[in-house]
Design goal:
With 182 residues, the chain is mainly alpha-helical. It has helices at residues 11-15, 35-48, 63-72, 88-95, 106-111, 124-136, 138-154, 157-173; strands at 26-29, 54-57, 76-78, 100-102. The strands form two sheets. A two-stranded parallel ribbon has the order 1-2. Strands 3-4 form a two-stranded parallel ribbon. β1 (26-29), α2 and β2 (54-57) form a beta-alpha-beta unit. α6 packs across α7.
């Protein structure tokens, strides 16, 4: 779970999944954006007896190091609150083709066209179920990676520039090449 450690990210949801899944370690990466929340999720991990299965990386992580951490991960879990408008970390998972399990929220639906990536519910049980599915059915993970690669190509600079050039070329051919400002 990379990014800032803040309540909107749902770290407690992912931590609560750990007791019901074996042989899974969690890496939480990001600066502490809310000290009280950080103490709360550390306490939850202690209460659940899973703190020894969590690596806490709470300092700034440069992008190249983040990329390496993503490549080492089997899956990234983004159990964000439902009203989330966007996620920079989701953008990274898409562009780096790293499979992710995400909350079913409108912003993520807009970017992801693969049902396998979505949590049925935003709770530890649903996270555990989805992680087990990713682990036991590698084809599920492959479908998510393929969908992310497709989205990455669709929103790449080359693709957007090409579509923009086509629009402007069409306007120019129709005599609509005047630019006005107010």
């Amino acid at each position: 779970m990379p990014g800032g450690i803040r309540p909107i990210k749902g770290h407690e949801v992912v931590i609560s999944a750990l007791p019901s899944i074996e042989n899974v370690e969690l890496r939480i990466v990001g600066g502490i954006g809310n000290e009280e929340y950080f103490r709360e999720i550390r306490s939850i991990a202690d209460q659940l007896g899973v703190n020894d299965r969590i690596e806490w990386v709470t300092e700034f992580v440069p992008e190249e190091t983040l990329f390496e951490a993503f490549q080492e991960a089997d899956v990234v879990v983004l159990a964000y609150e439902h009203h989330t408008s966007m996620s920079g970390i989701l953008s990274h998972t898409l562009s780096w083709h790293v499979p992710a399990i995400v909350t079913d929220c409108p912003a993520f639906r807009h970017m992801i066209e693969c049902e396998d990536a979505f949590l049925a519910e935003r709770d530890g049980s649903a996270v555990a179920d989805r992680i087990r599915k990713f682990d036991s059915e590698r084809e599920v993970q492959r479908r998510v990676i393929d969908a992310f690669a497709q989205t990455s190509r669709q929103f790449s600079w080359e693709s957007v520039a090409g579509r923009t050039t086509t629009v402007y070329a069409g306007r120019s051919q129709n005599g609509e090449n005047q630019i006005t400002s107010s």
